[in-house]
UniProtKB/TrEMBL annotation:
A Pfam family that the UniProt record links to this protein: Glycos_transf_2
Protein keywords: Glycosyltransferase, Transferase
GO molecular function, one term: dolichyl-phosphate beta-D-mannosyltransferase activity
Database matches in SUPFAM superfamilies: Nucleotide-diphospho-sugar transferases
TM helices/strands, residue ranges: none
Family note: Belongs to the glycosyltransferase 2 family.
Name of this protein: Dolichol-phosphate mannosyltransferase
GO CC terms: membrane
PANTHER family assigned: DOLICHOL-PHOSPHATE MANNOSYLTRANSFERASE SUBUNIT 1
Record InterPro entries: DPM1-like (IPR039528), Glyco_trans_2-like (IPR001173), Nucleotide-diphossugar_trans (IPR029044)
Biological processes annotated in GO: glycolipid biosynthetic process
Domain Glycosyltransferase 2-like residues, every copy: 12-174
Amino acid sequence: MTYDGLGRVVMVIPTYNEALNIEWIVGRLRAAQPGVDVMIVDDNSPDGTGDLADKLALDDAQVSVVHRTAKDGLGAAYLHGFQVALDAGYDVIGEMDADGSHQPEQLHRLLDRLVTADLVIGSRWIPGGSVVNWPMSRELLSRGGNLYVRLLLGVRIKDATAGFRVFRRSTLEAISIDTVESAGYIFQTDMAWRTLQAGLRVAEVPIEFIERERGDSKMSGAVASESLKMVTRWGLRERWNRLRARTVRR
Ligand SMILES: Nc1nc2c(ncn2[C@@H]2O[C@H](COP(=O)(O)OP(=O)(O)O[C@H]3O[C@H](CO)[C@@H](O)[C@H](O)[C@@H]3O)[C@@H](O)[C@H]2O)c(=O)[nH]1
């Protein structure tokens, strides 16, 4: 099935212990966008999410499942799913969480904008975007993290850490996903940064992000500190490269 003007679209949904959410979110996505396929990438969740995903795939030819052997991080799960989607010939490959934070009913905003962009991010931090039910600590972490990314990397994106996105196939091909190494949530920033560095168009559209009601977030101190370290390293490397280029020109 296809989405008008964009070709074949698949939304990749990574899961780890999302048994309480997976049927609900896939049902909503299929109802909201019947032309869009779904690929669940499960890291052998102990709560049986993988089995539930298999049942969904059995009942619906537009749902597929990638089973991985163990929990290996959000970024690693997405990269695996992206490669499967590229091999399957999809024209547009998207990302969203399994827990209802990203609303399938708002996916059309991202897809419509992709007609004139290479990556579209559903943004919480542009006018019209919002967050529902996040504790102040989480909002500060996200706003502060995004400010740090803007300052260190010099990018204009307001929500570079967001996980509701759609990529053109050509974007994933241009940034050579087999060279991406970030395994945790910093993967989101890494992909946006690589897209900009490849000279491609990154657009943001406002979304309402709703904190999950069932199951637990996998965000942790280790995930946040990995992000801080990586952004600092990229920022310093970028400055060093610019300085060297200037010195060589003189
Ligand atoms: N397969 C797999 N899935 C994972 C893993 N870690 C997390 N996930 C899945 O990835 C999705 C997001 O994980 P959450 O732990 O629910 O994320 P969050 O705290 O709500 O984080 C949100 O904010 C982040 C920072 O802005 C975003 O990067 C993230 O995408 C999301 O929108 C969920 O579907 C979850 O099951 C993993 O190691 N493996």
